[in-house]
Structures are given as C-alpha cells and as structure tokens.
Amino acid sequence: MFLLGKRGTFPQIVVICEVQKKDIWYSVHIVMCRIRILRDVIHSYRYLMKPAVWLILLTSNTLNYQHTKMKKLKIKKIAIIASICFFAVIGIILVCHILVVNNAKNRTYDSIEDIPQKEIGLLLGTSPITPHGARNFYFENRIKAAAELYHAGKIKKILASGGDYTMTEKHGCDEPTAMRDSLVAYGVPDTCIIEHWQGWRTINSIEAVKELYNFDNITIISQKYHNERALYQADHLGVTAIGYNAEPSPIRRNRIKNTIREYLARVKLFIDLM
Description:
The chain is an alpha/beta fold. The chain is built from 7 helices and 6 strands; from the N terminus they run ααββαβαβαβαβα. α2 crosses α7 (about 250-274), α5 crosses α6 (about 225-235) and α6 (about 225-235) runs parallel beside α7. The termini are far apart.
C-alpha cells in the first residue's frame, strides 16, 4: 500500500499499517480458537450421542446407586442385629436376677431376733484385704454377723469356707484361717469353728455342706445379694437354707462395683446349674 502525502508523513503511515496488521492477526487467532472450541463441542456431542456411551453412563450411575443402597442396608442390618443382641443380653440378665430374688423372698433376715435357730452357720469366705491391699469391709461385716448369730444362740457351729490364695495372689490370704482367727477375736470358741479350704466359689461351699459334712439345714452368712444367690444354689443341691444378711461396705464405689458384678454372677449361676 502506497500513500502520497507531504514530506514527513510516510513513517506515520507505516506505523498505522503495522498496528492494523497486528489487529488482523489477533482477530484471526480469536476466530481459530472459537473454531477449535466449536469442533470440540461437536465432537463431544457426537460422542455423547452414541448409545454405548449412554449405556455406560447409565450402568455406572446404577451401580453406584446400588452400591450405596447396599451399604446403607448393611449398616442398618448390623445396627438391628446389635440392638437385638444388646436387648437379649439385658433381658437374660434381668430374668436371672428376678428368678434369684423371687426364690429368696422371705428367706433372708436382717434382724437377729427374727431369724430361726439352726445347727450350722455357713460363713462364705472372702479375704480381709482387697486385691489392691485395702481394708475389706465385706470380710469384717461377715465376721461380725457370724459372731452375732453364735452369741445369740441362733447357730451352734460355724463352717468357715474359703480358699487359700497365699501362693497365687499378691495380697492373697488363707481365708478359712483368717476367718477363724477373727471369729476367735470376737469370742467364738475355736472348737465351734470348722475350716473348709475348698470353698473357692460359692457353689463349692454349698456342695461341701451336703457331700463332705452331711449338713442339710443351715444358715448362710454373707451380704444380702450373695445370700440370695447362695440360696438358689442350695435349693438346687438339696440343702435347706436361710440367709442372715451382713452389712455391705460403707464405701459407695465398692457397693456399685459388687452390685454390677452380682448381676453377671447370677447369669453364671444358671450356667453352672445347667
């Protein structure tokens, strides 16, 4: 392009032409980009319009939905089974508890005046020291209860039944010997105390009453919850028995712990008797 003008105007015309040339190339670049974008859109549209692609997409969505649905159903099923098991366990514990309590109704005594006289008092063993080395109030209160019965003439002899744990536990002791020494300290004659060293569990002590010593009419001496369970075992083994309730521990934490333990022990009671 040639333009005629006055002297000094030609360089200005060249600059203007160069600017216009750059604008044209920029416009061409924009057009080409838009053409490529349009081409990609058309290609994608053609791809998506294929039946196989739609089938794959629908199948994938269906599988994801089914997987999510199955996962939710599985979680729901596990929750239902867990709930059923939980309530079944609670139900079993409550049934065992109710059976033991009803069986012992009107057969345990808190008053020394009301309890009938028996020949033998079965003192269920425990250690004077807890597994942590602390003072055991359950032991002390059972000793006091047994001594009260003897001095009131409600029993004539005391069968102190427990185990010897001096070699197996850190703070273990010889329970029958400890009970004898404590009873003697409360004024019970040594000749009126019978020691039994195979009373590792309550049922072992009850069995010894009938099979080893041939006693069939006894007073069981322990805390109330323990007496109730022992009476159920005595009935099952053919031993006529009543219970004299010793005082529980004055420490609330110990009472709660033993109450929880007793609920589980009553379930085990029925397992042992099966």
